[in-house]
Amino acid sequence: MSDYLVQLFSDKDIIAKIKGKMPHLFQLAELENSRAGKLGMEIGSARERIIIALLMYRFGEENVEIGIPITGSEIDVLLFSNPISIKTATSKKPTSFKLIWTVDRRKALEFKKKYQPAVDMIYAQIFWGGIGYLYYFPKESQLRVFKKIGRKKYIRLPKQGTNPRGVEITKEALVLLAKDKQVLKIEINWERGVDNFKVYDRWVELWGVD
Hints:
The chain is an alpha+beta fold. It is built from eight helices and eleven strands. The protein has one domain: ECO RV Endonuclease, Chain A.
């Protein structure tokens, strides 16, 4: 387990900030990354940046490395050189999320054949109008579940003839992960609070700055 992520999920001040600010920040991200009421694919990257900013706030920007190729691997950020994967999904219960994004069937099959949990993971389960969680899934917890249920039950491939754009962890695996003895979580009341946000206002304002 990462001592630093244990600190993050145990710090009373940080927990209070997560509970109070994360729904607001995630709602702003959704408003900025939606069109005609539908979220764009870039919403995942926007949420990821919010969580990375939290790591920077808590541990200092100099200890958070973000220069990871977007298509390079499952690693999204390094915290004190420790690789971390960041996942987010909107659901009432832990159901599934994308392990990788790809529309290539061959790459999906290759990923399933070779995949094994290798890094710590932060997972935000968003449930607007209800209770969700921010989870810390240690690498050890992921490996324990992976070995318990096996590769076939841990990973779900996209159905042929569809375009779901990714390979997912299964509901069974995620439910077991959420219950693992080493997993830490922070309960969040996902209430929307922004009513009059205008996406273009700050850009219009910046155009007016000399």
